[in-house]
Design brief:
This protein has 110 residues and is of the alpha+beta class. The protein is built from 2 helices and 5 strands; from the N terminus they run αβββαββ.
Length: 110
């Protein structure tokens, strides 16, 4: 188990933005932009490194959930960034796959 598994299981409280049977989205506890939401699979996957072929649909669900949330948050037109950090050099600190949805301001170049 990990901290994001505990959030998905509601053992650790979070500000839930969206959830269905496979995906959950919640506000980042330390936002780095006005909108900074994390979208995770409820099932534990370490990172993109350990994705399997059968996870293809699940990854699509993460991206579509993020797209829908961006629209609900009113940043579809101004733009947003979806980030999947993988491993230490990318700054991945939680080893449970998560998509960062960031926007609400002009983001620095990445
Ligand atoms: P990473 O650096 O692994 O790509 O992103 C992990 C993110 O999870 C960080 O931006 C951090 O602020 C966020 N985070 C870590 N622990 C918690 C937590 O307990 N609750 C919430 N909502 N976000 C967390
Ligand atoms: Zn986990």
């Amino acid at each position: 188990m990990c901290i994001f598994c505990d959030i998905a299981d509601k053992k650790i409280p979070s500000d839930v933005i969206f959830e269905d049977d496979a995906v959950m989205a919640f506000s980042n506890i330390e936002p780095k932009s006005p909108v900074h939401i994390l979208v995770i699979p409820k099932r534990h996957i370490d990172s993109t490194k350990t994705l399997k072929e059968e996870d293809e649909e699940l990854v699509g669900k993460l991206v579509l959930a993020a797209r829908n949330i961006a629209k609900e948050k009113g940043i579809s037109e101004s733009g947003y960034r979806l980030i999947l950090n993988t491993g230490r050099d990318a700054g991945q600190t939680v080893d449970h796959l998560h998509l960062h949805l960031m926007g609400g301001e002009k983001l620095p170049f990445a």
